[in-house]
Amino acid sequence: MNKTFTVTYADEPYKTTTALNNTFQCTYTGPRWILGQVDRDDDQVREAGRSDSSAADPAIDPAGFEPDLYDYIILDAAESDAMAWRCAWMTDEYTHPDVDDYSEVISPATGADYTWEHVYEGTTGMLAHIYMNDSLLYNHETSTWTDMTLRTHNNTREDTLGTWAAIAAGIRRAISSDGDAHNNLTDAEKATLASHATWLESIPVEYEGINHWKIEYPDAVMPSYIDPADQE
């Protein structure tokens, strides 16, 4: 069956605000009835069966699955836009127009401006792109849905900056006199690594207020090195 509905997506990637009212039309193209299998411990829902003939089709009869381990819910995609949206998410069977990619000019504190771009999908895949995995939930006790949540970044700024600081510290150790016992770096290689460490150390100030996933990593190829601290 085909059922078209409107999807609202975030103002920008990895954010959850929708003040700009960004939308696209999405058409569910899968079977009308979907049997959802519901985890009893966390309410996560996945497709267990499907039918285009009727809600009474044995193919979506919970008795033919594992009724002692899971709860089940039959979704009728024709019932509403919301139900078609859930069916599309569960089955990955949908199409949509090509959504414009996101771009933004980034202005570091002292460095040159650059354009950060995020590529969206073509004419399918946007639902998986914009929503968190396993975020569609169904509570069998209350017969209520908790619908998919917009995707946020996997790593926090604090964790990412901490990782970059640790890398910088490792480079400093590698190019020190202690590092010479483990590395055979030329002066040019040490200079390249030192420059990279300086850039990593500058990030908290240079990119203050800029989302960490929008930071443009240098293209320079880094020489291989051994951190003396890893040899202790």
Describe this structure as you would to a colleague.
- It is elongated and about 75 Å long.
- α3 runs antiparallel to α4.
- The protein is α+β, with helices and mostly antiparallel strands and 232 residues long.
- The N and C termini lie far apart (63 Å).
- It folds into two domains: 125 residues, no CATH class; 75 residues.
- The strands form four sheets. Strands 1-2-6 form a three-stranded antiparallel sheet, with helices on one face.
- It is 23% helix and 23% strand.
- β3 and β4 form a beta hairpin.
- The longest helix has 20 residues.
Strand content: 15-25%
**Biggest β-sheet: count, sense, barrel?**
3 strands, antiparallel
Shape: elongated
CA-to-CA gap between the ends? Answer: 63 Å
Mean pLDDT: 96
Low-confidence parts lasting 5 or more residues at pLDDT below 50?
Answer: none
List the helices and strands and how they pair.
Elements: E1 3-9, E2 22-28, E3 33-39, E4 45-51, E5 70-76, H1 81-91, E6 94-95, E7 102-106, E8 114-118, H2 126-130, E9 137-139, E10 144-146, H3 157-174, H4 187-206
Antiparallel strand pairs: 1-2, 2-6, 3-4, 3-5, 7-8, 9-10
Helix pairs in contact: 3-4
